[in-house]
Amino acid sequence: MNIERLKLYHFPATRSARVKWLLHELMEEDEFDVQTVSLYDLEQYSESYRMKNPNHNVPMLEITTSDGQTLTMLESGAMVTLLADLYPQKRLAPAIDSPLRVDYLQMLYFGCSWVDMMLWQIRVQTHLLPEDQKDQRTIDRYADKFRNEVEPQLADRLEQHDFILGDEFSAADCVMGQNVMWARAYGLCQPEIFGRYMSIFSKRPAFIQAYADAKQFKLESPNRPNPG
Ligand SMILES: N[C@@H](CCC(=O)N[C@@H](CS)C(=O)NCC(=O)O)C(=O)O
């Protein structure tokens, strides 16, 4: 596939930041487009956006190919997987036939599905649902599960190496790094090993560029009629 241009639909410090971070790792800022979708103004529910993305969320990635097609992706994990593979010279994903690929895919999907699911449950129940629909038992259940089952797996890796797969940064860190920051905002990932991990990846120029807009994010995001 010959890519002419990439366009990311994004909102600061949400799951689209995983993809934005990776794009900054892979290319220069002027080599891709970013359009902010104002989630707080409910732009994701506009008819024109929902025509393209019936899930009414970010990220959305439009890939324009050199033969004029526009391909659309709606899942952050799929975007990270594809983009890292499309730029093998950047060495952010092990080659398809490398044994390292096994752990890489395991961590990417663990981060985008299982870990994300727990964090989302905590977020939606703490901040996004109307008061009369919030359920403290769900928050407690997933916080315990995260603390007792996820944190030890991640800490074990980070005690041995700087990054989630080993000594080298990979696209899996764009996902897991963001998850760790998300977890810390909800009182999880408190042991110092996670602070150390953050202090390492947050010095990367691509991270700094990707999260330069993060102050626009609010935990108590207003106006969310149908979260998750
Ligand atoms: N599984 C999707 C989830 C995307 C998602 O839920 N995005 C949230 C922000 S983190 C969103 O845009 N929500 C807007 C809404 O549903 O109103 C992914 O990882 O790409």
Overview of this protein structure:
The protein is α+β, with helices and mostly antiparallel strands. Helix content is about 50%, strand content about 10%. It has helices at about 15-25, 45-50, 75-85, 100-130, 135-160, 170-185, 190-200, 205-210; strands at about 5-10, 35, 60-65, 70-75. A 4-stranded mixed β-sheet has the order 2-1-3-4. Strand 3 (about 60-65) and strand 4 form a beta hairpin. The chain is globular and about 50 Å long. The mean pLDDT is about 95. The structure holds glutathione. Glutathione binds near residues 57, 58, 75 and 227.
What features would you highlight for this structure?
Glutaredoxin; four-stranded mixed sheet; 2 domains; 8 helices; binds glutathione; single chain; 10% strand; 50% helix; alpha+beta; Glutathione S-transferase Yfyf (Class Pi), Chain A, domain 2; 228 residues
